Automatic annotation (TrEMBL):
Official protein name in the record: Response regulator transcription factor
Domain of life of the organism encoding this protein: Bacteria
Chain ranges of the Response regulatory domain: 5-118
Residue ranges of coiled coil: none
InterPro entries attached to this UniProt entry: CheY-like_superfamily, OmpR/PhoB-type_DNA-bd, Sig_transdc_resp-reg_C-effctor, Sig_transdc_resp-reg_receiver, WalR-like, WH-like_DNA-bd_sf
Pfam family membership, one: Trans_reg_C
Residue ranges of every copy of the OmpR/PhoB-type domain listed in the record: 131-230
Keyword field: DNA-binding, Phosphoprotein, Transcription, Transcription regulation, Two-component regulatory system
Chain positions found as 4-aspartylphosphate: D54
Organism per entry: Paenibacillus puldeungensis
PROSITE patterns referenced in this protein's UniProt entry, alphabetically: OMPR_PHOB, RESPONSE_REGULATORY
Lineage: Bacteria, Bacillati, Bacillota, Bacilli, Bacillales
Amino acid sequence: MSKLQVLVVDDEWNMRNLLRIYLTKEGLEVKEAMSGHEALSMMSRYTFDIVLLDVMLPDMDGWQVCKAIRETSNIAILMLTARSETKDKVYGLGIGADDYLTKPFEPEELLARVYSLIRRAALTQTTTVQEQVMEFLGLKIYPEGREVYIHGTVVDFTQKEFDLLMTMSKNQQRAFSREELVDLIWGFEYVGDVRAVDTHIKNIRDKAQKAGLSYNPIQTVWGVGYKFNGAGALNEKK
């Protein structure tokens, strides 16, 4: 069985070395980048299971790197930063990061977050193989390929955006609270602001509208949270 591949992006040698020690001790394969541009170059040349991304980098900040990665990949991204403000965490999650860890941290917490993100991605891949293609008015969701088509054109969604859309589309009659969605998508260990859900929902709506969908795929249920709106399912097929 091949080792899990991790890309560590941090301009401080001490932090990269510390992360490498923690991760390799657990049997993970680690590659390192000292800048945002080096990280993006490595992303184009290698396949990784997760990216550990520092926010403060010398050439471009971690937010910019995260946005650039999300243009081409849904890989799990764990942001690392010394800044603990909630607004920073919400912003990072809103632009596509999957989790957020504040420095300094214990190795056990780091590894728990890493394995949680990788495990969640693996579970999604293994459980969607036999799931049905969901087809709605102008909208098709392919769980196996993790693709969304609107009027026949593929629309790129981040990992969290896709998971939110898929979870709600499979439970069309159910209204979800923000807390429920956080538990389902981010996991019970998530300790950030549940309002991060709002940012991802807004992104889904904006992308759907930009792609020409004539209705809002996720409706707000006042006093509760959110509910999927497929304007009526056309069919479900293998």
